[in-house]
Please model this.
Amino acid sequence: MSETAKLKIGDNSYEFPLIEGSENELAIDIKTLRGVSNGVITIDPGYKNTGACKSAITFLNGEKGVLRYRGYSIEDLAEKANFLEVAYLLIFGELPTKDQLVKFHADIKDKAIVDDDVRKILDAFPKTAHPMGILSSLTSALTAFNPSSVNVDSDEEMYQAIVKIMGKLPVLVSWAMRKINGLPLNYGSNSLGYVENVMSMMFSKPNEEYTINPIVRDALNKLLILHADHEQNCSTSTVRIVGSSHAGLFASLSAGISALWGPLHGGANQAVLEMLEAIKEDGGDTKKYMAKAKDKNDPFRLMGFGHRVYKNFDPRAKIIKVAADQVLNDLGIDDPILDVAKSLEQEALNDPYFVDRKLYPNVDFYSGIIYRAMGIPVEMFTVMFALGRLPGWIAQWREMRLGKEPIGRPRQIYTGETLREFKAVQKR
Ligand code: SDX
Model:
């Protein structure tokens, strides 16, 4: 195949190199386009056809429903790995040896204390504050308590920033949830595993011994792994572009948390549960909601369905659907919401509108059913997504900075007024 792409604009022809990735993906390298064509640029709303970078972290094939972290399949990792080793894999590129994993966890625990003054910021929030707003604010506030911006050329400084945020974010997540539940803040225990300690910090009560439920632990471990990275999605692209201005890691993560909050992105897991609840309250009339989702005059969308990249089943949704059945069964929970979800899925999978547009359940469709079975409040669902996505955001930010990528600054096509003269107010 030719190594270049040819472009003809008017009487001029241009050639641009083709870039091929390790999975045979092809891109046209147009970095010289504006210069050679006297100002012509491309435009691609939502970047549906535009690559922002080369990356060695996550590969996904939307047509085939394939997802791999550093070459390992999501099915393998969800089944066999623990979240901390997947975090290490995403950030450093290899699965850790036992010694490396023990040291990584020890260093994270060593940095997991959050300055007590951060509580004062948390206390200032109203009880009704959405925990994603709290998490984004407290994550940005961490910069004030850890002021030295990361010198990415120092492996040690980069490593210290990574273990700090891997240790502190779960504390902020648990504080946000305990504020909702009116419980005193805590730190769990360094004797616990990473995921177990997240559970202890979130669920333990001051007046009773907290015992880890292995079913919940294993389900949470799987959910965090499934959410850990997803190449250049909206929030990861936000983390990368904010980091490209050389803003610090914590500030970049805070921006990513805000991007994830949107109901078209990570906020969908909360919106799915609210939608399923509404359908159940409405007598389980899934046909009415399917009609609303297809009605162009109705802004309603079937939350948890569709995906920018997956035009086949989201492999994560397949795994989570099986896990949801398992967790509810193991916990002896009969949640009618799961039945509503399954009948909605069946309807959509057989409806031409959804089939023609290749709209399948995505990662958010079933995850909330498991979070709910764990006793996590619905407004905390996207916070759990952020906790899972943390290592992916860190890995992508680190790759962007180590790759010395230029500051992100897209161009535009101006469509406003051409030059006109100012008129004094008396003459307007
Ligand atoms: C996540 O990018 C990632 O990787 C994200 C993520 C990650 O791990 O980081 O996977 C996590 O964000 C998953 C997606 C969660 N969001 C939702 O579940 C919200 C509901 N779904 C959507 O709004 C939508 O499907 C998106 C935002 C996910 C994708 O939108 P696109 O790619 O911009 O597609 P589109 O809006 O152009 O839709 C194409 C067509 C349109 O119809 P037509 O104009 O062609 O007639 O499909 C329709 C849309 O109206 N459509 C839907 C629909 N999703 C798309 N119609 C009804 N219900 C839906 N959910």
Summary: Strands lie at 4-9, 12-20, 26-28, 58-61, 66-69, 72-73. The CA atoms of residues 116 and 192 lie 22 Å apart. DSSP finds 18 helices and six strands in the chain. The mean pLDDT is 95.
